[in-house]
Amino acid sequence: MRIAIDIRNIGKKRTGDEVVFFNLVKNLSVIDRENDYCLLTDRNPSQDSDLQAALESLRLAPNFKVVNLCENGAGKILWNVWILPEYLRRNPVDILQVQYITPFFVSHKIKIVTIIHDVSFRVFPKLIKKMDLFFLSTLIPLSLRRADKIIGVSRFTAQEIIKYYGVAPEKVDWIYNAVADSFRESYTKEQAEAVRRKYDLPRNFILYIGTLQPRKNLPALIEAYVRIPTEKRGYCKLVLAGGRGHNFDRMIDEFIEDYSLQEYVILPGFIDEVDKPLLMGLAQVFCFPSLYEGFGIPILEAMTLGVPVIASNIPPHSEITEGAALLFDADDADDFADKLTQIVINDSLRLTLSQKGLSQAAKFSWLKTAERTLDIYRKLCNISN
Predict the structure, then answer these.
(1) Rounded to two decimals, what is the model's pTM?
(2) Residue 385: inside a domain
(3) Are the C-beta atoms of 233 and 204 separated by less than 8 Å?
(4) CATH label of the domain that carries residue 194
């Protein structure tokens, strides 16, 4: 098979979607030395140091080739309407792997697989910028019709795709995400302290890491933190790690100011991928209060490190944690505050959650994800293992 994968997000310092494609490609390179892979990007690696560094860390096998179709990036419309279709017309493949949006005007001889991380834009349209919502509302239905196989990142996400878009169930599959190999490596105390100094982190803290978008429900986390009695909270601070980028929730700043928490709530900004395991390992508690997710990779990352997790009780969280995290009702501020207080003050509870989390996280691996993805490619081309 000749397989093309759209890797434009690799090297762009994004969160979930970059992690997924980076680790999918890395592990396909480990397990498949038979098929030819063409990794398509819209930047020239020799002119983009972030992309170059990411590609070098993939350690690609000889049957993997990186092809830049542009020098300095391309808009979504131009990429999908002209650049990618034109390349595929001149260089046909058997399988094209993308996420969300499928390119226009591509021969049906090419089987297209698209990964859908979540459909939050359908569930919470008011939390999405109008231009983004228009783009997604217009192109996602067209893309799902064109795709030969749609992959959700959890059972829940697969069910949501079928529910909201009326897609035939046999066209949809699900494959779990996992955590990068770096989360299972050993680090020295000196390395951890260097990361603490780099981001100016306190000794004891509750951690959130991810995007700072409205659906992440971070104002509710700030409010729950405030409601922990001061004498019980002790010196434990709150760290909200993530870049102030696309669709930043401005209520975060408002809540910090309203509650006079400038000394207690820390926003260190974007965390370099190499630093994430060390930063998460320093946390006393990891909290993921999202209103909606497709999977929730940071939860799995924290559990892999033995960090006790508290998260919103939404379907994908309960699906992947299976009792290994403390879950709260996202619609009940009292429940959130009570459980956040419990996990901060109860050493025994944190130890139990840590042990359960380690056991649960061991069930997930990118190697399994790559194997299932390759199996889908083979089935689409009627190739047996």
Answers:
(1) 0.91
(2) no
(3) no
(4) 3.40.50.2000
